[in-house]
Specification:
Number of helices: 4
Number of strands: 0
Shape: globular
Oligomer: single chain
Helix content: over 70%
Strand content: under 5%
Number of domains: 1
Structural class: mainly alpha
Largest sheet: none
Radius of gyration: 13 Å
Length: 93
Amino acid sequence: MPKEIKRILVRTAGIILVVLGILGLALPFLQGILFLAIGLILLSVASPRARAWIASHTMRYPKFHSLVQKTGKWITDIIGTVDADENHSGGTQ
């Protein structure tokens, strides 16, 4: 699959999951935090800007930061790289 199509699909899935996460914070039957976390990690895989934002906001909590990095690397191993920055390591630079 071409990298541009893959990037669009990953970003779209990330945005949809973030929106569902925001809705889930208000609705009792959706798991808001789970959808937000997965959506943000997908966006970090597809966007250097989102990756930098997440890295800067998780640095305060080293265990959570490590989890985000591992999850991002795991997703990247499954779907491959999708952003222009080929040398990222799943969550930080």
